[in-house]
Write a structure and sequence with these properties.
heterodimer, A: mainly alpha, flat, B: 426 residues, alpha+beta, 7-stranded mixed sheet, globular
Chain lengths: 220, 426
């Protein structure tokens, strides 16, 4: 075992520097084993994110400069900014919730729905967000959730709460119809119908699981 | 008909609730128990031992999940795997939304390591698991050496006792209106001295373990008529003081000390059952002598460590948990408020020290086990210690590169003629 004359302590392991004072130790026939493994530093994992941030900033700057050089009637650099903000919101949700895929899908539906309404409103309300975007999103999410649950062999209790939420979300377009907020009825109607059928199916066949799952998640 | 799988889940106990909210990469709330054997660890046998040990600790098979109002443990069917050590000391275990077990078992040369997320168990609770694991490992590994009589482990609490939430059992959450003993609550602006330093890359922890003869240290402690814990605590305070910059010497040094409640309230739980107290010393007010420190620290220990005082403190904590208003706050808001409360509490603390105490194993194992030790993730310098047989291991965990306090600390002991073996991870 090595000995540090400076600190008057024995040093175990294979390092030849005293961990206390940093002095170099004389190697006194070192036949010791490593006690802690040497763990190399991990490499930067967030390089992709950094690259996207960089490109976003470059994009915004260039679009403003181009707009100044070649003026146009539309304030299109604002669209670039809105577009990037939308992309980032969506991306943040995906990255943050990446460990739970059904939750990610649920959050995507909410974020993208909200964004589509904002976009629609900003470019002069044509109603496409309520007419098509939200109904299509709801049905698509149900399908995607169902497929991922089956493909990834998730257990019922992992996804049932999100199925329920998605089903409830899918009923919302009934409000659009009732208050005549939509110009085109069919997509909303189909979504509501699908959601009601879907909800009744999971309540009838998985009611017990839903109850247990809700008890657990909602305990106070 | 397909059989429905029963979902089992349980609530977190009172002390556990803070950990999921406040853990992050800098402070992972993970601690490690190590058992160093005299021979290299056999991976396959360790795995076998782990497979049987986990059956005795059902709650350890849980994953931590987020509900709408509270976190909860959910039983999983993940089987723990004993792997060779490849991650940094006390690397994060609980990662939001990821479903993994809240502990890991690994080995390296002669050492068996158990790392555990604090929400699952405290030091003593985890030690129960570790003792069982090491016991099963040694029995399997050297079964031919114990032909007629298999050593017995002196921990055989029933399954329900092991998984008991002892906070629920002992503290009703009633303020029993005894205003005679006031908790010495410090105002929100109170700030203790804080040790500064250069953080290690990747938020790693620098570990310096000093292994020494427990009798020699006890002798030193007895010279001051005091116990080992108080002696080491005082020495820690003293070492911090020695490295304090002159202009900050008026700040008090406050150590946070966890208290094992099993000493005061009977419990065999392998979960959390601890409380904490703060021990304060101000060198400007109370004198710079080591003797003065010991005197003051032992007074604080005596004052704080009474069942009555703990009762009042813990009942208050339970009352907070039971508060109907607090209960219906959604989890993300609870997380934020706990983080803020934690930040405020942190300002009042300089460092922390915890003593796991004497670890006992069947005497037949004396020739196979060299020493036990305990490490913790550290957002500030922290000492953790335990003893087994003749060996006392004091581990100094720090997020900083500087080692002045460690040098003063171990130098003080070695100057008293105590032989110290130092092991470090960096």
């Amino acid at each position: 075992m090595n000995y540090c004359n400076h600190c008057q302590v024995h040093i175990r392991g294979i390092n030849n520097i005293c961990p206390l004072c940093g002095n170099i130790l004389q190697d006194a026939g070192n036949d010791q084993k490593e006690i802690y493994p040497v763990i190399p530093p991990t490499y930067e994992r967030h390089l992709a994110i950094r690259i996207i941030i960089f490109i976003s900033i470059v994009g915004i700057v260039i679009s403003f400069v181009l707009n100044k050089i070649f003026p146009s009637n539309i304030n299109w650099p604002m669209f670039v900014i809105f577009g990037l903000i939308s992309m980032w919101l969506s991306l943040i949700v995906i990255v943050k919730k990446r460990h739970n895929i059904t939750k990610t899908i649920m959050w995507q539906v909410i974020v993208v729905s909200a964004l589509s309404i904002i976009w629609d409103w900003r470019i002069g309300w044509r109603g496409w967000s309520l007419d098509y975007a939200i109904p299509v999103l709801c049905v698509a999410a149900t399908l995607v959730m169902y497929i991922t649950a089956k493909v990834m062999k998730l257990s019922v209790r992992d996804y049932i709460a999100y199925f329920l939420l998605d089903g409830l979300f899918g009923i919302i377009p009934i409000i659009f119809i009732y208050f005549k907020l939509v110009n085109v009825f069919y997509p909303s109607m189909i979504t509501v119908a699908v959601s009601i059928i879907f909800l009744s199916a999971i309540l009838i066949f998985q009611g017990e699981n839903i109850k247990i799952e809700l008890d657990k998640r909602m305990h106070i | 008909m397909k059989q429905r799988k029963k979902v089992e889940w349980s609530r977190l106990d009172n002390a556990s609730k803070i950990f999921p909210a406040t853990c992050n990469n800098k402070d992972t709330k993970v601690f490690r128990l190590l058992c160093e054997l005299n021979e290299p660890v056999e991976a396959e046998i360790l795995q076998q031992a782990l497979n049987t040990t986990i059956e005795n600790f059902p709650l350890y098979k849980s994953v931590l999940r987020r509900g709408v109002f509270w976190y909860y443990f959910e039983t999983s069917d993940i089987n723990p795997v004993a792997e060779i050590e490849t991650s940094t000391v006390c690397a994060p275990i609980y990662i939001k939304d990821r479903k993994n077990l809240l502990f890991r078992v690994f080995y390296f040369n002669n050492r068996i390591n158990l790392e555990i997320f604090h929400a699952l168990a405290d030091g003593t609770g985890a030690l129960r698991f570790m003792q069982t694991l090491v016991y099963k490992y040694l029995i399997l590994r050297y079964k031919d050496r114990f032909p007629d009589k298999i050593p017995k482990l002196n921990y055989d609490a029933s399954m329900s006792k092991k998984m008991d939430d002892s906070f629920e059992r002992y503290f009703v959450g009633k303020d029993n209106h005894k205003p005679i003993i006031k908790e010495n609550k410090k105002g929100i602006l109170f700030s203790a001295y804080h040790i500064r330093g250069t953080r290690l890359d990747e938020d790693r922890v620098k570990v310096i373990e000093g292994s020494m003869d427990v009798k020699a240290v006890l002798e030193e402690a007895h010279k001051y008529n005091t116990t080992l814990t108080i002696y080491i605590t005082s020495l820690f305070i003293y070492s911090i003081y020695k490295e304090m910059p002159a202009y900050r010497k008026n700040r008090p040094i406050v150590l946070s000390v966890p208290i094992n409640l099993r000493h005061f309230f009977e419990s065999e739980t392998a979960r959390n059952f601890f409380s904490t107290m703060n021990v304060e010393y101000n060198f400007e007010k109370s004198g710079p002598d080591f003797k003065d420190v010991i005197k003051c620290v032992s007074e604080e220990f005596q004052k704080e460590l009474t069942a009555e005082r703990l009762n009042i403190h813990l009942n208050r904590l339970m009352l907070l948990e039971r508060n109907p208003f607090a209960r219906v706050i959604p989890l993300p808001f609870k997380d934020y408020s706990l983080r803020i409360a934690n930040k405020i509490e942190d300002r009042k603390i300089t460092a922390a020290i915890s003593n796991l105490g004497r670890i006992s194993m069947p005497f037949e194992f004396d020739d196979y086990i060299r020493q036990f030790s305990i490490l913790t993730s550290a957002r500030r310098p922290q000492i953790s210690m335990c003893s087994y047989g003749e060996r006392l291991v004091v581990s100094f965990n720090s997020p900083f590169q500087e080692t002045e306090i460690q040098r003063t600390f171990f130098g003080f002991l070695s100057k008293k003629g105590i032989e110290i073996e130092i092991t470090s991870n960096i």
